[in-house]
Amino acid sequence: MQVRRYPHQFRFQLIAKWLTETYAPCKTADVGGGKGLLAYLLNQAGWDVTVIDPVHQSLPPKYKDISLDKRVLISDRDSVKRIDEPFQEEMTKDYDLLIGLHTHGSNIKIINSCNKYKKNFVLFPCCVIDEPIEIKSNINWFDSLENYGKELGMPVERVTLNFVRQSTGIYSRI
Ligand SMILES: C[S@@+](CC[C@H](N)C(=O)[O-])C[C@H]1O[C@@H](n2cnc3c(N)ncnc32)[C@H](O)[C@@H]1O
Q1: Does 34 reside within a domain?
Q2: What pLDDT does 136 receive?
Q3: Ligand 1 centroid – CA 42 distance (Å)
Q4: Residue with the nearest Cα to atom 17 of ligand 1?
Q5: Residue 102 belongs to a domain
């Protein structure tokens, strides 16, 4: 039987669920976190998440709770902590975990800084364009990114979640 995959727009709900099953609640930065829905969902689960993104955006007015199949409104009085600046490697020392979903241009910085400060990362990358990484002709960009972390000696694992389009991530747990 074929399992139905969720639309891409529900990735935040699925990634939040997987994160809460994989890590204990911790001080987290969502780098390039956009509107902050992932941060909001994790904070609802007892996490302490800050969005680091130079473009200030407000939380969406609603989202779907996919486990209850129910629309949930987000009050315009609700917010998540934000640093409206480009991500810098030194910021990593203030967190236990860095998340990057489609954070193009910052994936290598996130891996490097987590290696330097001994922190964990979760990346669901969409590309490595403009990243300082060498792509060998016989290795695709995703494997190259995963290998980059492994070659630094980090315990990099891979996960694929149940939503359409690019649904595979890499993560570390130290
Ligand atoms: C493709 S969007 C991804 C947004 C969200 N994470 C998602 O998965 O829908 C990339 C985000 O990275 C942010 N961004 C761009 N340059 C950045 C930087 N140097 N540091 C942190 N965020 C950055 C953009 O403002 C944008 O919100």
Answers
A1: yes
A2: 80
A3: 18
A4: 86
A5: yes
Averaged over successive runs of 10 residues, the pLDDT of the chain (174 residues) comes to 86 98 98 98 98 98 96 97 98 98 95 98 93 87 95 97 96 96
pTM comes to 0.96
Q: Which residue, by CA, sits nearest to atom 18 of ligand 1?
A: 86
Cβ of 33 less than 6 Å from ligand 1: yes
What range does the domain containing 129 cover? 8-172
Relative to the CA of 30, which ligand 1 atom is closest?
Answer: 6
Query: Which protein residue's CA is at the shortest distance from atom 1 of ligand 1?
Result: 102
Domain of 75: which CATH number?
Answer: 3.40.50.150
34-43: which pairs have CB atoms within 8 A and are 24 or more residues apart? 35/59, 35/60, 36/79, 36/80, 36/82, 37/12, 37/63, 38/12, 38/99, 38/101, 39/80, 39/81, 40/74, 40/78, 40/80, 41/12, 41/13, 41/16, 42/16, 43/80
Counted domains in the chain? 1
Q: Is residue 3 part of a domain?
A: no
